[in-house]
Fold this sequence. Notes:
This protein is α+β, with helices and mostly antiparallel strands. The protein is 47% helix and 11% strand. It has a single domain (2-452), classed as CATH 1.10.630.10.
Amino acid sequence: MRDMVETGSGLPVRIRLHRAPLGLFDTLRAARRNILEIIPELAVRQPMITARTATRWHMVMHPRALRRVLRDNWENYPRSVVTKRILEPGVGHSLFLAEGAEWRWQRRTAAPIFSHRNLVALAPVMQQAARHAAARIARGAGEVVDLYEEMVAVTFEIICAVTLAGGGSFDRGVVHRAINAYIESVGRVSILDLFGAPAWVPRPETLLSPRPARRLHRVADRVVRERMGRANPDPDLLDHLIRATDPETGRRMSPLELRDNLLAFIVAGHETTALALAWSLYLLAFDPAAQDRARAEVAAALGRAELAGPEHLDALPYTRAVIEEAMRLYPPAAFLARTAQAPDRLCGRVIHPGDTVMLPIYALHRHRMWWEEPDAFRPERFLDRRPERFTWLPFGDGPRICIGAGFAMMEAQIVLATLLRRFRFADAGHVPRPRQLITLRPEGGVRLRVLPG
């Protein structure tokens, strides 16, 4: 994908969107390299694109149409067959993939766990992990460090601590390796997907993969079995899930539902925040003036404190804006897809049952109609005024907005502010290449020179 990224011109790295239409096999090759390569340049200029590549599809970039898909008529647009095919082997019928009544009761049951009070109670875990990350990074002071790997490590430490603080035989290394193997083995589009084949038709990727999802299931099943029926005076997220009941029906999660949701929280709960942090650090190294402003804000807010905490976050608006702008330019979930169940209209166009409705968040966040200087890094755009609803969607929106959005933002602010308190990050001549399989990762890492603050 060397020729599919653009650098220079005073702008951070971005994907080169194609100008000529792609045929079926060109689309397949592009999607297997990097799903963002199938987005046409027209998608950052037009409100909606409709075409056919084996099946009929629509790319939607207009806020009103996105509102209809994600909020007003959301039940008509469940996750696509491709999405379910990729994610179901790992997270099953968890809150992330469940639909209809099954999703409603799980959401009602889990929502209280992510209350603001509970999030603040988890802040010491975030601070401790931030301290460990700072200590590791300090050992590389003066050298070039892969900050993407460090951000994965710190967020994985946090998610394991908040989900599994109650103990249990849980090998973090095994789980981390299995997650990466799972994403690499099944997170690619098959030609069968482009032809609209149902999920039960075997894909070569699934048949030839080492089935890392099975390893994840074995580990999580064992943890759930060990934890059920055992009281924990300091409950973690898994304990809360075990005890939680649907306020309407009194239903509790079964061991299988607990397993699937535990894995969904672990997989989604560290990867997305790690990416937001890694891209934030890349952008701050790219723009030293923005980094100086963020570091000055952190120094003023923290005073003598070594670690950022929830009590500092209101005094860190620019630091938060850096993270928000990083998630605009490099949204962790940069490309979503839905399958229409019934006839509808979007932007005046007829949507037929079975049509694929694509939500190219990467293009939406760089759209010429909604953003000034859309490819530029400008954190202040989140200070001047909040973006128009449904033009900035790093966490989705509507009833299925990410349940852990508040957790992710608190975690990212605490970690980033703690690192800016101690270090300065400088460009080391390496350009990370945005590549999306399931999430938008920096291929090659985020390699920056770490300097004492």
